[in-house]
Amino acid sequence: MTRLVIAFLFLPFFCFAQNAETYIGVGNTEANLKNYKQAITDFSKAIQLEPNNARAYFYRANAYNNIKERDNAVADYTKAIQYDPQNAAAYLYRANIYSEQGKYSQAIADFDKATAMKPSADAYHYRANAKANMGDHQGAVDDFIKAIALDPKDASLYEYRGVAKSNLKDNEGAIADYDIAVRLDPKNSDLIYYRANSKGNIGDYKGAITDYTAALALNPKNAEAVFYRGNAYNNIRNYNAAITDYKKAITLNPKLPNLYRYLANALSNVNDKKGALGYFGEAIKQDPDNADLYLYDGLVKYNLGDKEGAMADFDKSIELKESSEAYQNRADLKLSAKNFDEAREDADRAIELDSKNPYAYVSRARAELELKDTTAALADLDQGIKMNPSNDYSYVLLGNIAAGRHNYDSALGYYNKALSYSPADPETLLKRAEVRIKVNDRDGALADYKKIAAIDKDDDNLRDRYVKSLIRAGFYAESIPLFNSLIAKNGKNANFYVGRGVAKQHTGDLQGAMLDYNTALKVDTTSSLAYFNRGSAKFDQKDYNGALADIAKGIKINDGQEDAYFIRGQIRLAMNNYQGAVDDFNSVVFINLENTIAFAWRGYARSFLGDTERMNADFNYAVHIEPKNPEIYLLRGKARINIKDATNACTDFKQAATMGSKAAITQMQQYCK
């Protein structure tokens, strides 16, 4: 019995003595049951017994993390790493907390350690997210490539790589990634929605609509998808479908930014003017003291050309409730009426009411530019961009300022930035094309002209400017297929026939050119451009009287077009009427001081008159403004031949030839032996 008693007395010591591993095991059991606070108590006891036990710190850190005590978790992961520097998971989990706290640099440093010790798709994925949050989207793409190599069946990796590519403006690459993600996870509406966004960004509006529709079939409550599908319909001029989507989006989320504005714009574009005005009109009847309704009714009226009605609505909106948006839109209306001082006052008030309204700064900048206060305009545009870096129009205005100052490289940078946010904007593409011509980037310019033709926005004013710009750039053979395509889409635009006629004329097809000019005049009997250019073609046919008669008819219709005087100036040059040519080029410059080539042609005309001083002044100005334009050097070389300065003429011909002028090579062969 004595022996049994002795054994019994010692039994508690051997059975119930606890060590660190025991507490760690119990703690993990509690953690698996989600009893995290009890688990923390157990892990703490383990640490009391073994203060250097890395595993105890690691598991306690996990428990702290699960109850969102992030600072305690970070402290414990740090201890775990201190006592076990090869614990890749501790680095990974601490990195995730740093990312959650916005400490991306520290997170990336930890992810670097984790991936070096134990590469995994998750580690690369999380590091990619941290890099993306720091704006390093290319670094994110690189990490997703590594993650995909380890786990090529994870749809989310392609999804997020697609997002990173979208942020790099690589929408085509993003679409390719979304395609793979959708194949792997075809019921994920978000994937289809993101792909739709990228398709819209590259101008594939029909493809975007198909994807938005598919995404909505899976998730009918995605208000953004409905809204953006409306935008896509709007871009293909299916305004009724756009209106339907905007109204549906309002029922899902009436607080979506710019939703009512876009609805107002779509209503403005439908043929049913009464119906367009009716939507907000009926709403006003139901709620006559709602200032916002007058604001958007005013937008509809403004877009329909009823500026007086729009002004009354904006005034009423402001009377009921002063708002930054109402003042800003009234400022834009006053800008269109050339009331620049009042426009600036309204923009000032818009900013007073909401200093974070980026559009108000842009409106004020526009007024300041018209009032010749460029310094203030630049400051406002800078402020607007700080608030809304993705507002492409701010960059367009900066590009316009730079181009106006003849700083073409800066202008290109701004237009590129604008197009990174709105790649399918034909206005910006046209501006960039024209600047590219000025720096002799003809390949880039032609690419822009082709993009504009593919978009073919329903805007006759834009189309007319496009035709003039393309022809002025001298893309004759290259433009014929573009004009063929445009005519096939819209055979009622006379200027498309004029453009194709000019292209044919300069490629030697005079008969085809005359046919196109005549067709243009059948489509539009008041097409001054058709008369001007038919006059040029008649001149090529040696019909001088007929040429001048057509130019005169065109001027009678529109005496403010520089093309008339430019063409007639060249005709008069060929007819040896040098002073008449100078007079015409004077008219061109008077109408458009930015037509640098007109200065060069005037200098060339003056060389025949022996007016060397003025000739040199014209060419010096032209070269200063467009130092990369080969036509200017070619004309100056020819002018110098006229004044018997063959040495300098050959220098000019050589310069023009190095810039790609074939005509300059011909001149060199004749005069520079």
From TrEMBL:
TPR repeats lie at residues 20-53, 54-87, 88-121, 155-188, 189-222, 223-256, 257-290, 324-357, 392-425, 562-595. SMART domains: TPR. PANTHER family: TETRATRICOPEPTIDE REPEAT PROTEIN 6, UDP-N-ACETYLGLUCOSAMINE--PEPTIDE N-ACETYLGLUCOSAMINYLTRANSFERASE SPINDLY-RELATED. This is Tetratricopeptide repeat protein. Keywords: Repeat, Signal, TPR repeat. Residues 1-17 form the signal peptide. It comes from the Bacteria. Gene3D superfamilies: Tetratricopeptide repeat domain. Pfam families: TPR_11, TPR_16, TPR_17.
